[in-house]
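Morning F.,

Quick status update on the modeling queue. The single chain you submitted on Monday has been processed. Sequence for confirmation:
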Amino acid sequence: MPIYDGCLDEDIRVVDVRHEQAAVYAADAYARITRRPGVAAVTAGPGVMNAVTAIANAHRAQSPVVVLGGQGPLEHAGRGSLQEMDHLSVVRPITKWAVQVQDPERLPEILNLAFRRSLYGVPGPVYVEIPLDVIFAQVNLEAVRFPAPVPDRPPCPASPSDVERAAAVLRQARRPVALVGSQVQWSHDPQAVARFARAGQVPVFTSGMARGVVGPEDPCFFQLSRKQALAEADVVLVAGTPLDFRLDYGKAINRDARLIQIDLDGAELGRNRDVEVGLPGDTGAVLDQLVGAGLEPDDPRARQQWLDHLGEAEHQEADRIRAGVTSEAVPVDPLRLCAEIDAALPPGTTVIGDGGDFIGTAAKVVRPRRYPAGWLDPGPLGTLGVGLGFALAACVLRPEAPVVVLLGDGAAGLDLLEYEAAVRQELPFVAVVGNDAAWTQIRRLQVQLFGPERAVATALSHARYDLVVAALGGHGEWVERPEQVRPALERALASGKPALVNVRMGTSDFRAGAIAV
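Structure tokens below.
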């Protein structure tokens, strides 16, 4: 209550939600869109526990979030006050800093440190606990130190000698590939990616928050041939993304390829696979350093042949999925559904991915409509349920532009009641549910291993999520045929309400074998 009251005095908007995890998801999306820390306030005990999953997601996604948590009064510590528990021990492993404020006069100082620690270095969440008697305490403002506002992140360049070594490796390459991930979001000028690609004629694949940083019209932009490119490359530059399960811990890259790695965390360099050159620093700054060091290939003809080869691989993959994209099947083919969504998205749309198999398909078909933060997904923790919290933040920050959530029907079950909060606060977004009545990413493998008669706990129903949204005051539509998808989505976008288009979706072998752990 004192926090809300103070927000009124300082003209700070409070967006309230129905579940604490949605509050932290919204703060996470706020941070990604603004490149400044987002803030969520939650009550003690179950409030903090409900927020833990979202804090962990921000931790793995490297999002600067400050979570303000409650606690029983200090004077009753250890006596069993309402909702009292040891939150700090729970959140320390998933935060950059976890602290309890014991002196109300130090609140500005500690909050200033919280913002600094969340934003600087590798971004991440910070937890600040404020006991009940501290937050209700009266203080003499003249005795309180109010630190200067936290400045923006400074550029983080790499060592010039290491940059020269990496540039030499890239010049010598005949078949280079660059894989750029989410850390580019924290660079002062993410357009350095496009400058790097053009200067070295290097094919670029993007993932996570980097999606959209290189436009599809750029001759160095590639999307569908990543697996083949990594398997055939002789030099691979991995920038701002770890060699984790998404790259088979480095084994997805040709074992004979020379590896260059850029990361904000120097300790990340060489994890899971040795690198020839490790460059601690932010992606944009280091890529601009590489451009400055000279990237013109030693063998321009071989480089062009490599680009042409990957271009042909892109066309072949596009041909492979064309049957699904143009399918007239009922229920709707997942590829056709994603193609219809892509065709309906207006310019400037913020696209949010929340789900498993459906989002894996959408990532190949649905194009980002803006950069930065035009495509938001949970990140490497793979958390379901982020979508509606992300959407609330995007609506607040981008009221002039559409917000569309791509929602798996499994993910739809986690936070659907946030539509009530969206309707009440007039925050219109549109969700499209790919409703195949299953936890498909898991069920597909389960059936393959054990057979359909032993596929337990992975079947759902074609639930009418659209009726739930309509009952909460939003706009809901049920779609069963492919030609109905785009008109329904256009009506939802034009409704001016929080909306949900629930599409009965069929099965597809497009992502067979795609699960990674």
